[in-house]
Amino acid sequence: MGRAPATRVGRQVCPDAVRSEGTAAARIGELPCGGAARLARIDPGSAPLPAWQSRIGAGDPPCSSRSDSALQGRPQAASATVGLVRFRGLRGSLWRDLADGKRRGANGETIVNHTLDVVIPAGGDPGLLQRCLVALVCDGHDIDLRVIVVANGPASSQNQASAELLLRAFEDERQTLIVVTNTCPGKTAALNRGDRERRGGAVLYLDADTIILPGTLAAIVAGLATDEPLLVAPPMVLVRPEGRLERGFASVWPRLSGMENDVVGAGVYATNPAGRRRWSAFPPIAADDLFVRSLFARSERKLLAAGGFLFNLPRRWDLIRAKRRWDHGNRTLAGLHDVRPGNLPTRSFRSRLGDVARLWREGPALACFVLLALSARLTRGENDDAAAWIGPKPPPIAPVAPRRPRIGICIVTHNNADEIRACLTSLKSCWSELSIRIEDNASVDGTADLVRQAECRTKIRANPVNRGFAASVNRLAVDFGEEVDHLLLVNPDVELASDAIDQLIAASLASEAEAIVGGRMMRHDGSVDPHNCLAEPSLRQSIAFALGLRHWPGGKWLDPDALGGWGRTGIRAVPALTGATLLINRALWDRLGGFNEQYFLYGEDVDLCIRAKRLSGAPLFTGFARYIHQGGASSASDSERWVAILRGKVSLYRQHLPALRSRLARWLLLGGVTLRAMAETSGLARRTIWRDLWRNHNLWRHGWPQPDHSAK
Description:
alpha/beta; disordered N terminus; 25 helices; 4 domains
């Protein structure tokens, strides 16, 4: 079969270029016409290696011209071709070093170029591919990156068009994108087709529905900087689905023997040139990752400590179909290849009993895993061994902007002069372009003047009166207009970790729908504050508050806000998030109409999450985006803050519960305050605010004022 045509994104292709293996110019497609001839006259030993190629984080090369010169305008393309063109007179180890992306220094030491090829077989939803490519663009800074997309299957034309939309993004980042169409069905056929476009150095094989976390590409490049054969993979992070069976499977599956603390694959694995020489082509089997793993002993496999990738488990019957396909790939691999013990996960009866004995404490989760595994085994079908790339078909994914995300940061201040400087200093991102706007609500401590003096990148507007948090954020969102892709709502008393914004973006890309994403709220002592993830307003929630069930034995199962004692780790969908730090898609924000301005302070974030869940999907929590929240910095006292909190709760009950349940929930809320006031009088309460809240119950028991519709 003849080779399918290739689309080189962003560069002119020389019509006379020879693209077969073993020729003098094996890869010149990304160079302009005549570029191969110019490069062929270069003596690699005569020119010193530019310093920007010798380390991560060195920035751009000295010559950053964007011209079409292969030697000046695109140093990545030039260096990539130098590493693959066999020059006349080069023999032995020198040729091998050039093919491996290495050079010899003046003293004979080996200098490793930070180059990485990424092969992506794309046969699924074009929206998933686009999100995957955006993550690569964001994480590929300071790396000579070549991304090879092989569009095949029924959606090949759509995937090709989706990938080509990122032309400008890869050009702006001085990276190379190659889009290849392939008529042969099957994932392994796509992998073999993509291998023809590699430069011969380190290579990452990446599924199109996978999102990498910040720092992953740099960790892979650093991990593969060795001459010995090595297979590496970043840690797998399961995006926990909402179904109970799926959550149980997700809890047990990564902890099975042979998978925990080892290279799993699961659509993301990388190897260096010495490791890639272990095999010539991928065999026509489904388990390509296990095939590659079978070629490396345990000492030759390394699970990276940094980075990671997000793995979305299929849902319901799709998960059973996927499990059948995985099992069939394992059986096929065991029958076709002789592997050394330990190279593949063992699935003997003894190992299964060992897993059960080791994970028996998981109880319900283990039972869910066993049930799904048995269902997959009992429902094996003829299509499990199909050579074509057939997998669970996800619903259509909305495309994202084909470039680095643009984030509009909204901050509302009220007497926050002591906290705002630290907050603004913590706003950093390698994955996105940030714009910051602040609305100050009648501060009397000089907050606005402090911002104007300290932050030239921030636009601030000072109000003579306090308009409230919800109304101020809505005005800031209008000011941003359509120039941003996401809104990031940040409280002025929040300090974000250095990669918190990037982690929020990665989680947003992994979401199958326009989502609200929140992070992990920490206290100053390093402990986790669980109050940023809450249950939806319900009668059960008000009963738990009235009786103080959270402090009872087994309270984590009795209080809905405890979410079953979950430790706020990993990535999962949650009922509601608090607004200390929230990332929301701009299109979703506009569809929701922003915050409900009925809520002056507290409650507006939960209301937004409830409406978003009905419209688009549940909010998403990521434990990798960490931030410290002081809490109550804009309130004059603790009692005043709790008055606002209780008013917000009453308004939520009134708005989102049926009339009878709403009335009962509000009375239970009042009863809970009454019991705590009595305990405070007896010296048993931990706080000393409940008597004041009981005396002033008329301030909060009716909630925030409802809008007056009679004036219309």
